[in-house]
Amino acid sequence: MRKAQLILGLAITCMIAFMGCSQPKPINTIKNLHDGINGESNASKKYEAFAAKAKEEGFVTVAALFDAASKAEAIHAANHKKVLEQLGGTAEVVYNEFEIKTTAENLQAAIAGESYEVATMYPQFLADAKAEKVKKAEQSFNWANDTEKKHNDFYTKALNALNAGTQAELPVSYAVCPVCGNTYDAANTDEKCAFCQTEKGKFFTFN
Ligand SMILES: [Fe+2]
Ligand SMILES: [Fe+2]
User: Fold this and answer.
1) What is the pLDDT of residue 19?
2) 151 CA distance to ligand 1 centroid (A)?
3) CB-based neighbours (< 5 A) of ligand 1, an ion
4) CA of 183 to the centre of ligand 2 (A)
C-alpha cells in the first residue's frame, strides 16, 4: 500500500515537472521586447536631438516637449529591458541613422513614429503578450502604448501651433512619471499617475 502511494506520488511529481518544462517559451513576446527596446531607445535619442534643434530655432516649449518625450521613451526601453531579462533575454540596442530637419519637419517625423507605434506595433505586441500570458510584458507595453497616444496629441498640437504661429499657447513645461513614462502638461497633472499610481511629487519636470 505504502509502496503504491510512493509510486503514485512520484508519478505526480514527474508529471508536474514535465508540464513545467513543456511550458512554451513566449517567443513572440521575447522578439517584441527586443524590437520595443530598440524602437524606444532610438526614439529617445532622436527626440533628444530634435529638442536641441528646437532650442536652436527658438522654440523652447517644443524643446521641452521633445526633452520630456525623450525621457519617457528611455523609461519605456528600461521597463521592456527589465521584462526581457526576467525572461532570460539580453537587450542589445542598434542605433539607426536619422535626419534632423526643421522643427516642424521633426514634429511630423515624430508624429509618424508615434502613429505607427499606437496603430500597429503596440496592438500586435499586446495581442502576443496576452496570448502568451506574459503579464509583465503586457503591463510594460500598455504603459508605453498609452503614453505614445499622449505624445502623438502633444506633437500634433505643437505642429498646429507652429503652423498657425500660436506657439505661445503651448504648455510651458511637461511632467514625466519616472515609473511608466506617462507624460503630462505640467500645469495639468493628476495627483497620482493615471497609469501606475506614482505620486506626482516624484514626476520629472521639463521646461
Ligand atoms: Fe512617445
Ligand atoms: Fe506612471
Assistant:
1) 46
2) 5
3) 148, 151
4) 8
List of domains in the chain: 25-168 (1.20.1260.10)
Q: How many Å lie between the centroid of ligand 1 and the Cα of residue 118?
A: 9
pLDDT beyond 80 at 90:
yes
14 pLDDT higher than 80: no
Show Cβ contacts of residue 158 under 8 Å, excluding neighbours closer than 6 positions. 61, 62, 65, 107, 167, 170
Lookup: cell for 153: 496629441
> Looking at the CA of 152, which ligand is closest?
1
- Answer with the residue of higher pLDDT: 3 or 16: 3
The cell for 79 is: 521597463
Please tell me whether the overall predicted TM-score, pTM, comes out greater than 0.70 for this model: yes
54 CA from centroid of ligand 1 (Å): 17
